[in-house]
Structures are given as C-alpha cells and as structure tokens.
Write a structure and sequence with these properties.
The structure is a single chain. With 373 residues, the protein is α/β, with parallel strands linked by helices. The protein has two domains: 197 residues, Glycogen Phosphorylase B (Rossmann fold, 3-Layer(aba) Sandwich); 165 residues, 3-Layer(aba) Sandwich (Rossmann fold). It is 40% helix and 16% strand. Strand 12, helix 13 and strand 13 form a beta-alpha-beta unit. Helix 4 crosses helix 5 and helix 4 runs parallel beside helix 6. The protein is globular, with a radius of gyration of 21 Å.
Length: 373
C-alpha cells in the first residue's frame, strides 16, 4: 500500500448522551459500544451525566458531567442547556476534537454541544426517542428542526426513520441524510453463548427484554395473552417499571416470571433459556438492537410489524399482531407444536444478525466523519 492510499485515522469525536450513567436502553448500549472501552471503535471524548451519590462503575473512556435539572420544556430546558454548555466548554479543548457526533436530534446535549463547539462539523444520529419526543413536546420539535438545519450529516439506521423524520421536519435537506444501520458486537455474531436443546414437549418460553414505556407495547401484550395456552412469559426490565405492571400481572392469562434488569452478558445467557423474543412495539423502532442480539444468539423473534422492525428483521422474524388475542394465540401454538418453524426462524435470524456487525457501523461513521474534515 502506498503512503497516499493509507487510510487516515478516524477523527476524534466529541459526543454527549444526556442520560445518567447506568441508564437502561439500546441507545445507551450503542453509545458505550462505539465510543468507550480500552480500545473504542471510534476515538472519542464521550460524556454522560453523573448520577447522585458515588460515581458508578463504567467503561474506560466514559466521562461524567455533574449537571442537574434535566428538562424537556421551557423555561427550564434553556437553563439546562446553558449549564450543559458551560460544563462541556470547560471539559473540551476544541483543538483536540475533529468532529461532533450529536447523539440525538432532540434533548439538551445536542444544542449544548453545538454551542460548546460551534465551528466543528456535525453528524447527527437519529434514534426513535427523538421522533417520539418531538411529536409530544413543542420544545423538542423546535430542537429537532434546528438540529436538522445545523447538522452537516444526519444518520438514520433505517429508511423508516428517514420517512418519519421528514414528516416532523418538512424543510429537511434530504441530501444530508445517510442510512447507516446500527450494529451489534462482532464477537456476539462469531461466538454466541451456547444454546441447549429445547424440550419439544415443554411450554413455549417467551421473553420480553427492555424498557416498559407505553410505546413498547407490553401492557397490550399482557392483555392479549388471554386465551393463549402452553406458554410462559419472562420479563427483563427495570424494577421500577416492572412494578407498574402489578394490576395487569394479577390478571395475566399466562405465568409471568420477572428476571430483573439484566446486564448485557446476563441477557445474552437468558436468550439461551427461551424459545422466542417478543417485540410488541406499538409505533416504531429505530433498529431493534435487542432483537438482532437475540437472533445472533439463536433466539427467534416475534415482532409487531412497525416501521424500523420491518426493515431490520423482515422475513428473518415472525410478524405477529400483538393487539389481536386470536392471532397471538395462533402464533404461539404454531411455534409450540411445529419445531420446524422455530428451526427455520433460528437459521434466518442468525443470517440476518450477521448483516449488522458493529464494526461496520463504526467504519461507516468514521468514513463519514473524514468526508467532513
């Protein structure tokens, strides 16, 4: 390779996720996967918020900002952004940063980082929460539209996200939009946890893993499981959110087992103990990373065919109407009694997950950054 053809090193990124360190969610896992660790895939100054009390254990390279008063609406939102900007201005040397990665189109970290580093090229990454909160909060809609105008590039993981974004930001310059799928750790694709054989005469072991916010559809799932036999449901979710399901759990038609909020390694091991992952999301999913991780571990996925999941899972999962008790019962019965369906879904899922290595996401983002510097 000649000196002229040697790839330039990835530009150092400044990026902020204004969530408390230790918060659950796919966006957090993706953030930590890309920017932190002893050998981050993308060299970065990566920040989250310091929770109250002692500093939590976190990956190497994650820096914490002691900024409180997070808000979504005015007048508190502007004051919160101002505090974040001041903290970032103290922490960052502009000469040591090449590119800004805006982790959301909304929320306080985005305008704060733009103001702290006003002359750096900006790549905005779009997540499902951006679109949901912009639709529900006037202030966040304004931030989203301002960010789409200020960003030099806007990255969406699926075409469905771009379509939804255009509805919220009609003046969007679509030439700035790039589709780069989110990815899952490469080692999970190449060396997944071992999976024991399934008992063909046992109940169908169903798993839900993730947040329990309304758009995730778990409340609807618990209601529509009425009439479903031969199945049991495990839920891995934050404890305070699971406690809110108590009234529904008392009337649940199938046995429900709470697994706690599992860390990444524990969740991957839990995949091996179940027969199908449920994704009953009601509106949209940016990518559905937990579904792809499940597929990489050999766990078939039943999903509500909403934007985002339609593209990332497609024929590699089992589309299911989680709002229809009859349809859900029929799908469960089919999986429980016909082992070939599970085998086919498992094979399709493994092939599908292999299309989304995290290294490919990092490489594409780094290449996009080089084009802007």
């Amino acid at each position: 390779m000649t000196p002229d053809s040697t790839p330039r090193p990835a530009p150092v990124v400044a990026t902020v996720l204004d969530l408390l360190a230790g918060s659950p969610g796919g966006s957090v896992e993706l953030f930590l996967d890309l920017y932190t660790g002893p050998r981050p895939l993308i060299p970065a100054r990566a920040f989250m918020l310091q929770p109250a009390g002692p500093r939590p254990d976190g990956p190497a390279g994650l820096e914490l900002l002691s900024v409180g008063g997070k808000a979504l609406d005015e007048p508190d939102f502007t004051a919160y952004v101002h505090r974040l900007r001041r903290a970032l201005a103290v922490a960052l040397d502009p000469d040591q940063v090449a590119v800004v990665h805006l982790q959301h189109l909304t929320f306080g970290a985005t305008p704060a980082l733009i103001r702290a580093l006003p002359h750096h090229p900006r790549i905005a990454l779009v997540h499902g929460t951006d679109l949901l909160f912009a639709a529900a909060h006037r202030t966040q809609l304004r931030v989203l539209r301002n960010t789409t105008a200020a960003a030099d590039a806007i990255v969406v993981p699926t075409a469905a996200m771009a379509d939804h974004l255009r509805e919220l930001a009609p003046a969007l310059d679509t030439t700035k939009v790039a589709e780069i799928p989110w990815g899952i750790p490469d080692h999970l694709i190449t060396t997944p946890p071992p999976r024991p054989p399934r008992d063909p005469d046992g109940v169908l072991r169903l798993l839900y893993a993730g947040r329990l916010t309304a758009e995730k559809g778990v409340q609807t799932l618990l209601r529509t499981l009425t009439g479903t036999t031969g199945a049991e449901l495990s839920i891995a979710a934050p404890a305070h959110e699971f406690s809110g399901l108590a009234p529904l759990l008392r009337t649940a038609a199938v046995p429900v087992r709470y697994l706690g909020w599992l860390d990444r390694q524990e969740l991957w091991r839990a995949f091996a103990d179940h027969d199908a992952l449920l994704m009953p999301s009601t509106t949209l999913e940016a990518m559905g990373l937990v579904a792809l991780e499940a597929q990489a571990c050999g766990l078939p996925v039943m999903f509500q065919p909403v934007p985002g999941l339609n593209q990332s899972l497609g024929a590699a999962g089992l589309p299911t109407d989680f709002t229809d008790p009859t349809a859900l019962a029929a799908a469960v019965q089919r999986l429980r009694t016909d082992s070939t369906v599970l085998d086919d879904l498992r094979a399709a899922g493994l092939a599908n997950a292999a299309r989304f290595p995290l290294s490919a996401t990092a490489t594409a983002l780094a290449h996009l950054g080089r084009t802007l510097t």
